[in-house]
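Hello forum,

I keep getting stuck at the same step: I have a sequence, I want structure tokens, and every attempt I make locally crashes halfway through. Rather than fight my setup again tonight, could one of you with a working pipeline run this one for me? It's a single chain of 374 residues.
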Amino acid sequence: MLMKFVSLSVVMISIAAFLVWVRPSSGIAGLTTALPTGSTPLALAVNPATNKIYVANLGDGTVTVIDGTTNAATEIPVGIHPIAVAVNPVNNKIYVVNHGDGTLTIIDGNSNSTTKTDVGMSPVAVAVNPVTHKVYVAGQLDNNVTVIDEAGKAAKIRCGVSPGAIEINSVTNKIYVANNASNDVTIIDGDNNSTATVAVGVHPAALAINTATNQVYVANRDSGSITVIDDAGSARSIPVRTQPVALAVNSANNKVYVANAITNDVTVIDGTTGNTHTIATGNTPLSVAVNSVTDQIYITNQGSNTVTILDGVSNTVSTIAAGISPRALALNPRTGRVYVANLIDSTLTVIDGHSNNVAAGGGLHSRESIERRR
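Reply #2:
Ran it on my machine without issues. Output:
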């Protein structure tokens, strides 16, 4: 119990370190309209097949489910301190990591019924392979990844020290785990659970995969670099700016976008040449998402309560207001809508990706109308 408490304290301190209460500056495009969530929304995921959004609420142990068509909201109790969520759009299952009680809640997207399974000490991240239907959960304190198959059978896989971010290449059936304290990445073969280890930079914090090239990009928070790992396990390093904490890949044009939290900018990497250039964002950019169809990149700026929208063709930027302390974001590639979880005021900003304005009217209901439906 003490170990879980200590680990949760670390998570909360890490969150608090990024909380900057700043009013958006004038000249920001759009008017902020937000949907309510549970308390302290920290993570979210979208099921594009059902057009539903799942928001993990750290503060009250719930997941808010929002219908992307009607914006009707439902809250589902999960475990203690849910901090990560992943969706399998093929079988319509949603997986929620409960950091506080060491469990994984599995939501049936058809009925909203839930089951729960133990996954070890202080789980922090989850990823699902929609091809094999296997789920992988990183355990921060026991240095394991728990893998659960579709029948519910679980196995433990040893990895490095303090595993955090986890991503899956469903094409190659390889799973990549960033080990924050041992400065390496564990590569799991999804066929037989065998592992290999690749050294990276200092405190790897995030991963992204280009499934077209099978290149894996690792953001090394405290060495200001990106490690690129190819399918054979060879690695090279690309310098970026200060404290890269998030990244996303556009597989269509082989570009990588890296959010640098301290220097308030995004590094754009050409995945073919390795060349880079830098584009300014708002304060404390912490999350990145790419719409490969429209070639638009969305970056949450927690320190300025905004979202930067980058045009991937022209490299021009625009800024739109979000709620207080926007942290995580996810997009629905089918509808073009982008969802931003605002940590402090417990709301969800919805951006129309076609106009890049905050969605309002015509199906986006007021906060009061949604609350009455609960």
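The first helix runs from residue 2 to 17. If your local run keeps crashing, start a new thread with the error log.
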